[in-house]
């Protein structure tokens, strides 16, 4: 059984099943050929509007376009979502709010230097308090930094009740 390591995501075969793993979690696929797995992933990526409809069908020799796309995406709420650097997301949200960096700093009670560093990508992995302050300053829900519009985390009460049934 061969395995193929993708960074930061892994796709590997274990006990006949396929496992795709990333920072977003894990997905298991039943036993199938490599071509069928990449064909299914291609279909999901097209349905999620991440790959163009005319992208080539994968084969044993050619599936890099699917592999590279999966490496730059996350699986959220049943769809593939293109990952976006925090810096690009913050700048886009600030531009949508029609705020300058100084105005956002004032509204979020953060230093303008912090906002500049985050937007330029020289400061990465902001603290949770910083992300929450930015969301307040933008007058948006903090989930806007997740990657999907309107995405909500699963309801733990609902999940618990469904397991009890």
Could you describe the 3D structure shown?
With 165 residues, the chain is an alpha+beta fold. It has two domains: 3-82, no CATH class; 86-145, Orthogonal Bundle (434 Repressor (Amino-terminal Domain)), CATH 1.10.260.40. The chain contains seven helices and six strands. The chain has helices spanning 34-47, 64-71, 86-96, 101-108, 112-120, 128-138, 156-164, and strands at 3-5, 10-14, 17-22, 25-29, 73-76, 79-82. Strand 1 (3-5) and strand 2 (10-14) form a beta hairpin. Helix 4 (101-108) packs across helix 5 (112-120). The longest helix is centred in the first third of the chain and has 14 residues, at 34-47. Mean pLDDT is 82; it is low at 1-9, 150-154 and 159-165.
| Largest sheet entry | 4 strands, antiparallel
Outline type: elongated
Q: Determine the mean pLDDT.
A: 82
Distance between the termini: 38 Å
Q: Which ranges are low-confidence, i.e. pLDDT below 50, for 5 or more consecutive residues?
A: 1-9, 150-154, 159-165
- Share of residues in strands: 15-25%
Helical element count? 7
Strands, count: 6
Helical proportion, percent range? 40-55%
The count of domains is 2
SSE string, helix = H, strand = E?
EEEEHHEEHHHHH
Structural class: alpha+beta
- What Rg is obtained from the alpha carbons, in whole angstroms? 19 Å
């Amino acid at each position: 059984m061969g395995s193929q390591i993708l960074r930061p995501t892994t796709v590997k075969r274990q006990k006949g099943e396929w496992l795709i793993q990333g920072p977003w979690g894990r997905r298991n696929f039943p036993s199938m050929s490599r071509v069928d797995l990449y064909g299914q992933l291609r279909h999901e990526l097209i349905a999620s509007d991440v790959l163009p409809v005319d992208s080539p069908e994968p084969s044993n020799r050619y599936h890099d376009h699917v592999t590279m796309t999966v490496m730059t995406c996350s699986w959220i709420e049943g769809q593939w979502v293109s990952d976006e650097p925090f810096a690009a997301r913050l700048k886009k949200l600030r531009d949508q709010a029609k705020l300058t960096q100084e105005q956002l700093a004032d509204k979020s009670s953060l230093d303008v230097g912090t906002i500049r560093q985050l937007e330029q990508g020289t400061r990465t992995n902001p603290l949770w308090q910083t992300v929450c302050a930015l969301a307040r300053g933008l007058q948006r829900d903090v989930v806007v930094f997740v990657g999907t519009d309107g995405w909500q985390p699963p309801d733990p009460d609902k999940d618990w009740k469904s397991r009890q049934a």
